[in-house]
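Priority: medium. Attachment 1 of 2:
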């Protein structure tokens, strides 16, 4: 099954990604008009995240994390494992792999990475995020770094792709120092919004197309 998944997912990613079309469905109102102008930010800091697909109880899952509390714009937010590009990283794939191991204690190999989704720019932190998709054939044992991760959230792919509906919820946005209504997913009582929700929206669209091929 995993080989089939890998083949069809790679084929679809090579044919072209939904990109802005998928991102705009989850983008906050104040970002929709700016989306087309923020995909080329020469001065943005490079970063990468990983959508890690793995089997658990014979069902495919991905993992999200709730970030630890800190003095920053992404404190306590739900996100994918990942972080900023370091000089020691040869590529952004290495960034995603290194950060996943640092945050969750899971070793992912470069050959496990099957492709990338569309880059997305995060204005508050000036990060250009490159999302990668990896598939492993075992259930990982997560050992979260408590300095960076408050909670590990395992989500079945079917739950994510077929049961998560786009909602509108008020969320406190540090940039504006007030609550703002945002489009989001509710996953296991967590509100997933912003760049993470936009990345997942694209992953979900590609996965739905892939399901029709399998």
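Attachment 2 of 2:
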């Amino acid at each position: 099954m995993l080989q089939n998944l890998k083949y069809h997912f790679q084929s679809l990613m090579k044919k072209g990604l939904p990109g802005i079309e998928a991102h705009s469905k989850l983008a906050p109102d104040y970002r929709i008009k700016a989306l087309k102008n923020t995909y080329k930010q020469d001065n943005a800091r490079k970063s990468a995240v990983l959508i890690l697909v793995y089997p658990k109880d014979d069902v495919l899952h991905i993992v999200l994390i709730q970030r630890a509390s800190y003095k920053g714009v992404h404190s306590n937010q739900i996100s994918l494992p990942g972080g900023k590009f370091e000089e020691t990283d040869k590529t952004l794939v290495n960034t995603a792999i290194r950060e996943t191991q640092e945050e969750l204690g899971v070793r992912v190999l470069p050959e496990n990475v099957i492709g990338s989704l569309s880059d997305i720019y995060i204005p508050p932190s000036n990060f250009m995020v490159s999302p990668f998709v990896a598939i492993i054939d075992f259930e990982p044992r997560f050992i979260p770094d408590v300095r960076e991760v408050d909670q590990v959230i395992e989500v079945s792919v079917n739950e994510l792709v077929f049961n998560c509906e786009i909602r509108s919820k008020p969320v406190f946005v540090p940039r504006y120092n007030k609550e703002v209504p945002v489009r989001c997913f509710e996953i296991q009582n967590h509100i997933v919004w912003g760049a993470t929700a936009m990345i997942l929206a694209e992953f979900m669209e590609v996965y739905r197309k892939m399901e029709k091929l399998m």
